[in-house]
């Protein structure tokens, strides 16, 4: 079943994705391919005297909001000193029981306020049981 997009540029097919909570809930147990691409803007420049150490950005897709190993997909990106817009992607396969959910987390150690821009996406596809 195909549902109408809530805003321009959005595509949503099938059950499971809650656009309000940002969670995908597995309708049946199985292996799911997850992908997210986030367009992130640094809203303020890095403060003077703040070195490159710690200016990392982790993006994770976690099951049941538990982001420890074996229940997440993760990528780590260094924030360069130049440029305010970053695009970061995470993709991979996770096993979900029926009724479990997966969602995207951003771990910001950059010391700057960040905003996720429109045009970012999050998708899940059932591969098999």
TrEMBL record:
Keyword Disulfide bond set for record: yes
One Gene Ontology term from the biological process aspect of the record: negative regulation of gluconeogenesis
Cross-referenced PANTHER family: ADIPOLIN (PTHR24019), ERYTHROFERRONE (PTHR24019:SF11)
Molecular function per GO: hormone activity
PROSITE patterns: C1Q (PS50871)
Similarity annotation: Belongs to the adipolin/erythroferrone family.
Domain C1q stretches: 1-129
Location in or out of the cell: Secreted
Keywords: Disulfide bond, Glycoprotein, Hormone, Hydroxylation, Secreted, Signal
Chief site of localization: secreted
Protein name: Erythroferrone
Highest taxon listed in the record's lineage: Eukaryota
GO cellular component, one term: extracellular space
């Amino acid at each position: 079943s195909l549902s109408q997009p809530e805003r321009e540029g959005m595509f949503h097919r099938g059950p499971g994705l809650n656009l309000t909570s940002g969670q995908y809930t597995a309708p049946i147990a199985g292996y799911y391919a997850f992908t997210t691409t986030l367009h992130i803007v640094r809203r303020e420049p890095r403060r003077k005297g703040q070195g490159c150490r710690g200016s990392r950005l982790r993006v994770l897709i976690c099951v049941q909001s538990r982001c420890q190993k074996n229940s997440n997909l993760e990528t780590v990106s260094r924030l360069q000193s130049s440029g305010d817009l970053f695009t970061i992607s995470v993709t991979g396969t996770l096993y979900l029981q029926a009724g479990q959910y997966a969602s995207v987390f951003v771990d910001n150690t950059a010391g700057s306020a960040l905003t996720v821009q429109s045009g970012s996406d999050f998708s899940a596809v059932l591969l098999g049981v």
